[in-house]
Amino acid sequence: MSNHYSAANLRFPGDDARLDLTDLFVFQSPDDPGTTVLIIDLNPYTTGMSAMPPFLLKSEFHPDGVYRINIDTDADAHADAAFTFVFSEFRNGRQTGTAYYATGDKARQPEPAGEVLIRDTPVGFDASARSVQAGPVRLFTGVRSDPFFADADGSFHGFQWTGQDAFADRNILSIALEVPDDMLSTDPEIGVWATVSVRRDGELVQVDRGGHPTINPFVNPNNVKNEYNLRRPADDLANYLQLWSGLLEDNGYPPEEAEAAARIVLPDILRYDRGKPAAYPNGRTLTDDAFSARFAWLTHGRVGPDGLKPHDDLLSEFPYLGPPNLYPV
Hints:
Layout: E1 21-28, E2 35-42, E3 65-72, E4 81-87, E5 96-103, E6 115-122, E7 132-134, E8 137-145, H1 152-155, E9 171-180, E10 189-200, E11 203-210, H2 225-230, H3 236-250, H4 255-262, E12 270-273, H5 290-298
Antiparallel strand pairs: 1-2, 2-9, 3-4, 3-10, 4-5, 5-6, 7-8, 8-9, 10-11, 10-12
């Protein structure tokens, strides 16, 4: 998986798929070179994947959830800009969302803050959904075809690749933005990560987060996963550099190389130099084979690609992810 099933024991955070951040993508818009595409995917209501526990899945955003894309402009692992999204209750097949944009101190507040880009915009639950203009930002919220591709079965059976894409014909909920570059930073280099929080007993609690793909489900030990979701990237080097360096040594890295390899993904912020073509780990496009890249990194190159190709339903125009698949599949 990428960040699907990111809690301990291959479960969803709080056993609620609506709080599960599955993927983050960052790349230059093919429509407008002066804009950057930011996409977070959530709620992997997939079925039929072996080794996955059954859950009652709901195909909407959590009404008590706070979904955020954080932008670091000065490499200090703290947000300097943020796009935050909250959603209404799901009633009669409808749900609406409100989007905020904040900079400076407001970008680091846990509660939604800053300028309201759009209020009560409808979430799209079928193929007819369209993007909207939210101030200077183009925005899409709704069901899409999951772009992540991976031989999940093979990864659980000694990397004996099966040729089967566990995410083909599956859907996710997506929040996609096309953002003018100057809303992110005047410098071409930015760092991006996403967080999901939920209100519990009146308190906002972070329950999932990620920048790099395929980290928590495979890199962290099971007893670390839930704690990891609660923490901040600014503390990652102190908390995980020794742990992950040791893991990489156990997987074949010479000691002098292990720490440098761990620092590629620590802190867990996806770095993107907009002066260079996007290709993971410089940003991430919808066609990057992040799953194979992670296991090559994890095993010092011993595990080769799983041989799968990007999904063929991707669009050439915003929001770029394919229309939702029909169920049952």
